[in-house]
Amino acid sequence: MEKQVALVACNGGCRSDSCSYGCIGCAACVSVCPADAIAINDCGVAEVDESLCLGCGACADACPQEIIHLHDPNCPMVVKCSNRDPGKVARTACQVSCIGCGICEKVCPSGAAKVADDLSSIDESLCLSCGMCAVKCPRHAIYDLRGVLTAKR
Amino acid sequence: MATFFVNGQAVTAKKNQTLLRFLRDELQLTSVKDGCSEGACGACTVLIDGETCRACVPKTDALEGRHVITVEGLSDFEKKLYTYAYGEAGAVQCGFCIPGMVLCTKALLDKVEDPTEEQMRYAIRNNYCRCTGYVKIIKAIELAAQLKKAGVIPEPSEADWKLGSSVHRLDVEEKVLGYGKYPDDWYLPGMTYGSAVRSQYPRARVLGIDISKAKALPGVVAVLTAEDIPGENKVGHIKHDQYSLIPVGGLTHWLGDPIALVVAEDQETLEKAKKLVKVTYEPLPAVHGPEEAKEPDAPRVFDEEENNVQAYKHVSRGDATGAIARSKYVISKHFETPWTEHAFLEPECAVAYRDEDGYVRVLSTDQSSHTTLHECKILLGSDKVRVQNQLVGGGFGGKEDMTVQHHAALITHLTGRAVKVKLSRAESLLIHPKRHPFWMDFTIGCDENGIIQGVKASVYSDTGAFASLGGPVLERACTHASGPYNYQNFEIEGTAYYTNNPPAGAFRGFGVTQTCFAIESLLNEMAERIGISPWEIRYRNAIRPGQELPNGQIVGPETGLVETLEAIKPYYDAAVAAGKPVGLASAMKNSGVGVGLPDWGRCKLIVEDDAKVHIYAGASCIGQGLGTVLVQMVVTNTPLQRDDIVYERSNTWIAPDSGDSSGSRQTLITGEACRRACEKLTEALKTRTLQELNGEVFYGEYLAKTDKLGADVPHPVSHVAYGYATQMCVLDRKTGKIESMVAVHDVGKAVNPKSCEGQIEGGVVMSMGYALREQYPIDDNCKPIDKFGKLGLFRAHEIPEIKAIVVDKPGLDVACGAIGIGEITSIPTAPAIAEAYYQLDGQRRTKLPLSDTPYERRGR
What we know:
- The complex is a heterodimer of chains A (153) and B (860).
- With 153 residues, chain A is α+β, with helices and mostly antiparallel strands.
- Chain A has one domain (5-144): Alpha-Beta Plaits, CATH 3.30.70.
- Chain A has helices at 28-32, 58-62, 87-93, 103-107, 132-136; strands at 5-8, 38-40, 46-48, 68-71, 77-79, 113-116, 119-122, 142-144.
- In chain A, strand 2 and strand 3 (46-48) form a beta hairpin.
- With 860 residues, chain B is an alpha+beta fold.
- Chain B folds into four domains: 2-180, [2Fe-2S]-binding domain (DNA polymerase, domain 1), CATH 1.10.150.120; 192-285 and 343-431, Aldehyde oxidase/xanthine dehydrogenase, a/b hammerhead (Aldehyde Oxidoreductase, domain 3, Alpha-Beta Complex); 556-591 and 710-860, Aldehyde Oxidoreductase, domain 4; 600-703, Aldehyde Oxidoreductase, domain 4 (2-Layer Sandwich).
- In chain B, helix 20 (753-772) links the parallel strand 30 (738-748) and strand 31.
- In chain B, helix 14 runs parallel beside helix 15, helix 15 crosses helix 16 (534-541) and helix 15 runs parallel beside helix 21.
- The longest helix of chain B is centred in the C-terminal third of the chain and has 20 residues, at 666-685.
- The two termini of chain B are 44 Å apart.
- The interface between A and B is medium-sized, with 16 and 23 residues.
C-alpha cells in the first residue's frame, strides 16, 4: 500500500548520553507533527502512534539525529536502533542496542534482514513479517510493533 | 513452562518449544501445517491475540497468557462461512495453505467489515500459495466479508453436478477446516521417526560408514545402510539409476544422495543420531553443468555409464534445412531458461506401518500410489506392500519420484515399526527433481507473408544426478518445439546431460515451457520483421482441424487454437489501440503420455453397504481436483445424484492403476475409464436398484493408443489430444509492471469451469515467477543456496489482474470431450511477457528470468 508511517529507530534503552546515535528527546518531531501522532514516551524517546500518523515525513525532516524514517505499516517487524558503532561499543552504550551480530540476517527466511555498518535493517519489500528476527534478536533491538512476538516495548 | 489459551482452553507447555511443534505434536491440532518451519511459507499461520503469526516462530515460553486461535477454534458460523466462501469462490486446490489463509481472512474481517481489494491482498500477502495464483482466495475473502455482514449463508450457486457446472469441490470442507489428512498429520501409536544422512560431497567415493556411535545412542531404533536393502538398491521412474542408499565403495552423485537411514523414537534423538554417523569419503571433482559434462575427458557422473549423456532425441520431418535456406526471412537465436523449484507448499512426507495383514502400508503424498508401490516393491524385494494416497499438498511434477516413500517402507519392513519420514524444507529444495534448465539454439524461416517454412533447433538440458524423467522431458521439449502451427519442415536434436547438480525431472509443462519460450519469442520477432502483428502471424499459421502438425499428426475436430486467438482478439486490439505495451504467445500441450507408451486409465465403481457408488481409481488428486472431476463424470453418465457417490482416494489394493498424475492426463484418460465404467453401471441400474447392486463392481478401462516417436506411418498419432492456449500480457507503461494477463484456454469440455479458471490463474502466476523472478542458484559445491522465502515466488499483493477465459470446443470422442489443462496454463506465459517488455523498451530478451524489469531481484 502506498501509505507509509513514521518510525523512530531508537528504543531509548540507555537513558544516558553514552549513545550518540539515538533519540535525544528534543521533541522537534513532536512540535512539527500535524496530527499529534508523535510523543515523547516514558523512556524519554519519541514514539509514533501509527494509527494517527499521516506519513507526511515532517518529523523525519525535523529530527536532528536523523533517526526517523517512513516505513510500511503492514510490516510490523522493525529495527528500533540507529547505533552504527562496532558491537563492543554499541553493547556498552545501551541495553537494547543493535550490535550487528547478524543473527537476524541468518534466521531471516526471505533475505530481508541485512546488517551493514554494524546495524541491522529490514528491506520491507522482501519482509514476510514472520518475526523470526525479532524473536531471535539477543539484544531486543528488533520489535514486533503489534506487541505479539515481542513485548510492546 | 508457560500457560496460555488455545481455542479458549487453558493449556500448559512444559517443554519450551515452538508453538507449531506444541500445537501439532502435543495438542494434535493438525490444521496448523508445517510447510517450512523457517517462518517463510505461512502454512502454520495462527492468530495470537487476534494477530496473524506463524506458529513456527514463537517459543511457547514467550506466550504466557496469550490467546491462540487455530481453525479448529472457529465458531460454528465461521466454519460454515469460510467453507462456503472458499468453496463458492473455487479458492481451494491442494489445500495446504488454506487454514492459514482462512485465519488471515478472519483476522482481517474481525477488524474491517468492508475491506478494500488492497486490504484483502495485504491480508494474505505474507502467505504463499503455489496453486491458485491467489485470485480466487481474494474472491473468497470478498465473499466471506459480504456473507459475514449478512449473517446468512446461502446454498451453493450451482448444485447440479453434471459436467459444465461449477460445483464446490468435494474436498473444500476438510481443507478449509484442516481435518483432512496429509501424511504428516498422522500420529500413530509407537511411531518412530526416520531420516537420511546425505552426502557431504556432490561427487565422492564412499570409503566407509561408521554407524556404531549412532546406534549406541539411547532412543535410536536402527541405522540402516545399503547392506540392509533386501531388494534392488536402485529405483527410478523409467531408468533405475537412483540409489536408495549409497554403498561403501559407491560413488555419490549429488548432495542429496542418501548414505544411511537413521530411525529414532523421537525427532530430537533423530537429529542427534544423524550427526553421529561417520562417513569417510574420497572427494572427487564434480561436474557442475552440461558444458563440463560434455567434455570428452569429463569426470563421469555414473560409474555405470560410458559418458554423461543421459538421453538424446532427434525429431525430423520434411526438410528443415532446405526450407529455411529457401525462406525469404530467417532468424536464428540462442535462448536459455533456468532451473525452477516446484515450491509446493507441502514438503515430502511418508508414514509407513505394518498393517493387519502383515503388509507394509505406506501413506503417501505422491503423483501415483501405484508408482510408489512399484518402486517400494523393487527396493524391498517383496510384494507385501500397499500404498494409500493421503491429501497431496501440491505436486506440479515434483512428487513423481521417490523421495521419502521408499525409505519409510524400508524402515517398516526391516524394523516392524511405524515410521514417519519427512523432509525439512531445506532437504525438499535439494532433493526432489526440479525443472530442467535448457540451452537452446533455434532457427526459423518464413515467407513474405509470415507463413512458417521450416524450423531447426538444437537444445540441451541439465538433468542432474539421476535420470528421473529427463528423457521424456527432453522428448516433449523436442516434439512441442515446433509450436502449434501448420508446417511440415521441422528438425530438432536434444541432449540431456547427467551432472552432479540436484536432479531435474517433471515440472508442469514438461520441457515445453522451455522450448515454447524460444519458438514463440522467435515468432514475435518474425512478425515484426514481416510487418504484421504477433496476433496475425499466429492466426495465419495456426493449426486448424484436419491439418498436419510438424510431427505429422493430423489434428482432430476439437482443435481450438484459432478459437483461443479469436477470443483474445478484442482484448489484444483494445490494449494495442490504447497504446499499451502488449505481448502475445500461443502453445499446445499434449493431454496423455502419448508417443506409443502404454497409457491406461482404469476405474472401478463399487456399490458398497451404504448403497452408494464408491469411485476407485489409482490416480492421484494432487490438488487439481480429480475427485470432483470423477464425481461429475459419474453424475453426467449415470442416473445417479451427487449424494449417491463417494470418491475414494487412490490406493493400490482396490483402486486399479490409472497412471501418474502427469502429462495433463487424468481428466481425459481416467475420466474416459470412469465414463466407460458408468456405461456398465447405467445398464445395471435399468433393472436393479443400488441396494440390490451391493457388492458389485463396474470396471472401466481405456488405453490411449498412440504411435511411437518416429513411427514409420504417414501420420503418426503422437498424442490422443492436445490442449491449446493463447495468453497475453499488458504492461503499465509508467511503472513497467504487469497491468493484466489474459489467458484463453481451449479445454474441449470444461468439467468444472471455475476449477479450470483456478488452474489457469495458478499456472499464469507460477509462470510469471518463471518469466520474471524465480531462480534456483547452485554454488560451486553443487549446492542450491536459496531458502524457500528467497525463491522469488509471487505474493498476493504483487499479482496483476488475471482474466481467465475457458473455451469449450467439442469434437474429442472420449471423456465427454474433456482435455486436461494442468500444464498448458504455464506454457505461453513467459514469451507473452517477454514480448510485452520488448514493446515497452525495444529490448529483445532471450534469457529467463527476464532482465531489466521492475521485478528483477537485486543483488543477483
